[in-house]
Amino acid sequence: MKTVDIQPVKDFLACETPQAWLQTALENQSILLIDHANCEKKAASTALNLMYRYVDKPDLLTRMSKLAREELRHFEQVLAIMQQRNVDYVQLSSARYAGGLREHMRTSEPGKLIDVLIVGAFIEARSCERFDSLAPLLDEELAEFYRSLLRSESRHFMDYLKLAKQYAKEAGVDAAEVDRRVAFFAEKEAELIQAPDREFRFHSGPLN
């Protein structure tokens, strides 16, 4: 498999995944897979919601349509692995991660769309970083699968970030303001990733 350079992803994020989270992931691989499947569904849903909300933005429609298809394909792949490993798809409570980011988003345009896209970039970047961090620790089949996701996840991160900058420029928002929002969410994202959590999830912090 061709190596994917995810250094831009790592540079974008303000911290690495804690080692304690990685250890918990190895000890809870069934939950890891179930919540990974949930994350793929949510990512597709987010893309579709943006398509419905911003029908006047052709570039967004095109990129989100492609992203939604890829995320649903990943969902199907995770389901197949779960079935092979006799992992039942059960209901799990949501991690605080995405909600913790979204609570800081602005509610009026154009700030709302810019923040939605920046948050999307962070979620995709963290997913990519976690796949990369987990792969060397997992069995060959799961490691190969997670490595196969790196290219698309890193591209999704860039798609979201490029769209945020594009629509900010079109709305007359200064580029420095976008950079400030990225720095703000980078700080909030790192806090969520490093703060202790009560339940293990794909985007949780380390357990208490």
UniProtKB/TrEMBL annotation:
One annotated GO molecular function: tRNA 2-(methylsulfanyl)-N(6)-isopentenyladenosine(37) hydroxylase activity
SUPFAM superfamilies attached to this UniProt entry: Ferritin-like
InterPro entries: Ferritin-like, Ferritin-like_SF, tRNA-Hydrxlase_MiaE
GO aspect biological process, one term: tRNA modification
UniProt keyword terms in alphabetical order: Oxidoreductase
Family annotation (PANTHER family): TRNA 2-(METHYLSULFANYL)-N(6)-ISOPENTENYLADENOSINE(37) HYDROXYLASE, TRNA-(MS[2]IO[6]A)-HYDROXYLASE
Protein name: tRNA-(Ms[2]io[6]A)-hydroxylase
Upper classification of the organism: Bacteria, Pseudomonadati, Pseudomonadota, Gammaproteobacteria, Litorivivens
